Recover the amino acids of this structure.
C-alpha cells in the first residue's frame, strides 16, 4: 500500500519503520496535513495522520480527489476527522482505540502531584539557590475524593492509580451501567459536587464539548483541582479562567488546550502575537500546562506504531481480496464484511 504519514516527529520514525518491516511504501513527512499539504497524498492509497492534522471536509475532499481511500489516525481520539466527509467519499477510517492507557493515566497523576506539591515552583526557586519552603504547602491525596469523568481505558487506569494513594474514587460514564473495581458510578452532578480532584477522560464529541463550563464549575467544591489529559475543548477556557481568578477552581492541570491546533507541537517562542487565553493560563501560578505529551512514553509509541501498521495491513488484505474477487466476479461485500468484523479498530 502506498502511504504518506503526516506530522511525523523524529522520535516516531524508528518505531514506525520497525513496525512496517518494509510491508508498505510509506513516506514519512514532518508537515501537518492541511489544504496546502494534501497534495503530498497524490497517488497514495492511504494517509496516516495525528491529532493536530486538519482532516476537515475541505481537506478530505482534496484527499479523495488525489485518490486516497484510507485514513489511519495515530490517536485514540477521532474528533479531528470529519467522518461525514470521509463517508461521502467512501474513505475508510481507523484509529488506535487503546495503545497505552497507563501512559496517559500516569501523566494525569503526575500533573496532580506536581500541582499539589508545587514541584515546578520549588524547582524554579532552587535554580536561583532559593531554598525557602514557605509557599510550598500541599495536601494529602490520602482520603481525598477523586472524580473520574469517562471510565474507559484511561479513566479506569487513572482510577486504579488514585485508589493506590488511598483516595475515594467516583466515576461517571454516559455509557456504562455499573462501576469497576470498587469505583462506584455516580451521576455527573454527584461527581462534580463531591470531588476534590476531577480528572477528564471522555472523548470530544458534540455532547462533551464545553462540558466543564460555568454551570458545571458552579456545582464543584471550592478550590477543586481539575485535570484534563483528554481534549482541550472539553473545558470552556474563558469560564475556567474566571473560576481560577475567583478561586473557585484552586488548581488546573492541562495536557490539552481548547485552541491548541496549530500551536502545540511547535516552537512559537519568537512570535510576537501570542494566544491571549493561553498566556493568561500560563501566567496563573495555580495552572500547569504540558504540551500534549501524556501519550509520550516509549511503550506507547511502540504500540501506536504497531497498531497503525496493523490497520494498514488489514486494509491491504481487504484490498487484495477485493481485487481478486473483482477478477473472479465474486460479490464485493463478502470480503469487506470479513475485514470490518475482524478489525475492531475500523471506525463505524
Ligand atoms: P475510551 O473510549 O476507552 O473511554 C472513553 C469513555 O468515555 C467511555 O467509557 C465512554 O463510554 C465515555 N463517554 C463517551 N461519551 C461520554 C459522555 N458524553 N459522557 C460521559 N462519558 C462518555 O477512551 P480512552 O482510551 O480512555 O481515551 C479517552 C480520551 O483520552 C480519548 O478520546 C482522547 O481524546 C484522550 N487521549 C489523550 C491523549 C493525550 O496524549 N493527551 C492520549 C490518548 C487519548
Amino acid at each position: 500500500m502506498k502511504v504518506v504519514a503526516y506530522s511525523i516527529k523524529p522520535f516516531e520514525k524508528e518505531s514506525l519503520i520497525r513496525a512496517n518491516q518494509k510491508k508498505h511504501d510509506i513516506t514519512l513527512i514532518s508537515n501537518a496535513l492541511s489544504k496546502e499539504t494534501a497534495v503530498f497524498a497524490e497517488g497514495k492509497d492511504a494517509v496516516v495522520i495525528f491529532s493536530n492534522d486538519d482532516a476537515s471536509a475541505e481537506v478530505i475532499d482534496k484527499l479523495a480527489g488525489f485518490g486516497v481511500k484510507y485514513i489511519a489516525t495515530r490517536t485514540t481520539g477521532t474528533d479531528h476527522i470529519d467522518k461525514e466527509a470521509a463517508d461521502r467519499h467512501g474513505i475508510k477510517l481507523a484509529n488506535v482505540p487503546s495503545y497505552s492507557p497507563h501512559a496517559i493515566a500516569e501523566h494525569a497523576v503526575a500533573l496532580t502531584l506536581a500541582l499539589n506539591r508545587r514541584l515546578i515552583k520549588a524547582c524554579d526557586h532552587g535554580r536561583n539557590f532559593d531554598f525557602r519552603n514557605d509557599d510550598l504547602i500541599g495536601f494529602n491525596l490520602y482520603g481525598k475524593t477523586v472524580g473520574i469523568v469517562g471510565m474507559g481505558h484511561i479513566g479506569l487506569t487513572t482510577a486504579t492509580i488514585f485508589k493506590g494513594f488511598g483516595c475515594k474514587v467516583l466515576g461517571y460514564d454516559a455509557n456504562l451501567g455499573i462501576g469497576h473495581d470498587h469505583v462506584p458510578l455516580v451521576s455527573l452532578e454527584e461527581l462534580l459536587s463531591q470531588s476534590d480532584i476531577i480528572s477528564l477522560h471522555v472523548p470530544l464529541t458534540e455532547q462533551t464539548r464545553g462540558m466543564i463550563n460555568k454551570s458545571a464549575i458552579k456545582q464543584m467544591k471550592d478550590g477543586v483541582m481539575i485535570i484534563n489529559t483528554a481534549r482541550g475543548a472539553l473545558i470552556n477556557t474563558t469560564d475556567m479562567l474566571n473560576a481560577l481568578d475567583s478561586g473557585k477552581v484552586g488548581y488546573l492541570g492541562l495536557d490539552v488546550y481548547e485552541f491548541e491546533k496549530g500551536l502545540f507541537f511547535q516552537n512559537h517562542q519568537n512570535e510576537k502575537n501570542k494566544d491571549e487565553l493561553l498566556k493568561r493560563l500560563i501566567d496563573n501560578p495555580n495552572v500547569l500546562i504540558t504540551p500534549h505529551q501524556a501519550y509520550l512514553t516509549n511503550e506507547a509509541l511502540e504500540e501506536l506504531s504497531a497498531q497503525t501498521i496493523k490497520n494498514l495491513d488489514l486494509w491491504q488484505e481487504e484490498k487484495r481480496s477485493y481485487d481478486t474477487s473483482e477478477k473472479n466476479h465474486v460479490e464485493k461485500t463478502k470480503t469487506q464484511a470479513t475485514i470490518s468484523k475482524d478489525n475492531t479498530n475500523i471506525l463505524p
In short: The longest strand covers residues 249-254. The chain has two domains: 2-99+297-345, 104-287.
